[in-house]
From TrEMBL:
It is found in: Cell inner membrane. It comes from Siccirubricoccus soli. InterPro entries: MATE_fam, MdtK-like, Membrane_Transporter-Flippase. Coiled coil: none annotated. It is a multi-pass membrane protein. Its main location: membrane. Keywords: Cell membrane, Membrane, Transmembrane, Transmembrane helix, Transport. The chain crosses the membrane at residues 73-96, 117-140, 160-182, 189-211, 223-244, 265-291, 311-331, 343-364, 384-405, 412-438, 444-468. Residues 1-19 have a biased composition (Low complexity). Pfam families: MatE (PF01554). This is MATE family efflux transporter. Residues 1-25 are annotated as: Disordered.
Length: 472
């Protein structure tokens, strides 16, 4: 497969010196271009990692409280999880990464007016996509969850939760647009504060609305959805306040809409979205395989176990958002080798952190699963998943980190290609395992092999400098 030809804007940026003088450069931008790599990366990553773990705890809090409603409610949440995570990954990681990358490259290349104009373009893109997601899942949610194997009480629980959280989808998209603008300038603290405040609000709100208290009625699974919507609204409002009141280097200004600025975001974000769809398709299709092999209890176990894998996404995103800003700014300034060193440093950190989580989960699976229930079938399936797939988590971590770094570079063909490889190996391998009579053990082995292939191949390609090779 041939290397990607840089898009015109990115190619020009990699060969031109920064347009702004060093003396007039914003100190935050100067840090991205000149600071020592590891200390700078860790300095930017730690608050972001902390807040992403806090944000991930939203799903864990919900799962813990909902698990007390029974296995059907837990299975219903597992059915909704792939679609909701798709929305989160698209708005924060894919389109959000495109927003951060475009703003970082504009600031690195000294195009301050473009950076300001990109803010309004970003809000229009994410606002429109948020409305689209609401319509999609409100109209076709039942069919989607049935296709994943949902039925009976589990399907009813899935719809009760889904109809609420997707009604408020635009709040998630707008909140992540504001956060991505701030992260593209290298500001990781303000998004962190806003998201933590949203999580703090969720802690008492979720059980209150699920089980009720005094005049507040018990809403059951739907109450968990309402808690998420309210927390999302508060987070979006705080982040919007930060951007519109001038607490961002890139600020929204009255400007004419320009196709090239929409494309500057979407040429990274749209391609990254394909990778996100691959990840979600992998989870959705393997959920269907698990349902076919083991039924509702197995889906509950697999869904609960795989939530730990999804917990790695915000963990690595803590590194990923700084990687987008650092790599994008250095690419914009023509510092290609520094950008590559940043990417591989971030990938190495992500591998070690993710592998530590995976190995711990493989050794003590019930320490995780026991938080969410005691059903024997759920515990058995979840433990089998974690023992087989957990040791491959490090490869998922390095692949995901390099996906974010590739967003900053504007070079996403290789993460896309290796993500497709993961999808094929996981799904086709799982089907083959079922055909051979290997059951869930075979399905989970295929998932582990797919993660190793994904991370190892992408690391080899990026480390070899594939970003900068011309098409042959």
């Amino acid at each position: 497969m041939n290397a990607v030809t840089p898009a015109p804007a990115a190619a020009a940026a990699t060969t031109a010196a920064p347009a702004q003088s060093q003396s007039g450069m914003n100190p935050r931008t100067r840090l991205l271009l000149e600071g020592p790599i590891l200390p700078t990366l860790l300095r930017l990553a730690w608050p972001n990692t902390l807040v992403m773990l806090a944000q991930a705890s939203v799903g864990l809090i919900e799962t813990w409280w909902v698990s007390h409603l029974g296995t059907d409610a837990l299975a219903g949440l597992a059915l909704v999880f792939p679609g909701y995570m798709l929305m989160q990954m698209l708005s924060a990681g894919s389109i959000g990464g495109g927003i951060s990358s475009a703003i970082a490259r504009a600031l690195g290349g000294g195009r301050r007016a473009d950076a300001d104009a990109l803010v309004s373009h970003a809000l229009l893109i994410n606002g429109g996509l948020g409305l689209f997601f609401s319509a999609l899942f409100l109209l076709f949610g039942r069919e989607f969850y049935q296709a994943l194997g949902g039925g009976g009480a589990a399907l009813d629980a899935a719809l009760a939760y889904s109809d609420v959280v997707f009604a408020g989808a635009v709040l998630v998209w707008l909140g992540n647009a504001f956060a991505s603008v701030l992260r593209g300038t290298g500001n990781m603290l303000l998004p962190s504060i806003a998201i933590i405040l949203g999580v703090v609000l969720l802690l008492p709100l979720s059980p209150l609305l699920i089980y009720g208290l005094g005049p507040v009625p018990a809403l059951g699974v739907a109450g968990a959805g309402w808690a998420v919507v309210i927390a999302s609204a508060v987070t979006a409002a705080l982040l919007g306040w930060a951007v519109f009141t001038g607490r961002s280097i890139a600020r929204p200004r009255r400007t004419r809409l320009q196709a090239r600025l929409f494309m500057d975001i979407l040429r990274v974000g749209a391609v990254a979205s394909v990778s996100t769809f691959q990840t979600t398709a992998t989870v959705a299709l393997t959920t269907a395989l698990v349902a076919h092999a083991g039924g509702t209890d197995a889906v509950a176990g697999y869904g609960t176990g795989s939530r730990l894998e999804y917990l790695l996404i915000p963990l690595v995103f803590g590194l990923g958002a700084p990687l987008v800003a650092l790599v994008g700014t250095n690419i914009g300034a023509g510092q290609r080798q520094r950008a590559l060193r940043i990417a591989m440093t971030g990938g190495g950190i992500a591998f070690l952190a993710s592998e530590a989580v995976g190995v711990a989960a493989a050794i003590w699976p019930r320490a995780w699963l026991g938080l969410f229930g005691t059903d024997p079938a759920m515990l058995e399936t979840g433990s089998a998943y974690l023992r087989l797939v957990g040791p491959a988590y490090g490869f998922f971590g390095i692949g995901l980190a390099l996906y974010f770094a590739s967003q900053g570079a504007g070079r996403l063909l290789w993460p896309l290609a290796t993500g497709f490889l993961r999808l094929v190996v996981a799904v086709m391998g799982g089907l083959l395992a079922l055909w051979l009579g290997l059951g869930l053990t075979g399905v989970f082995t295929a998932l582990a092999v797919a993660l190793v292939a994904y991370g190892a191949l992408l690391a080899s390609l990026v480390g070899a400098g594939v970003w900068f090779r011309e098409r042959g």
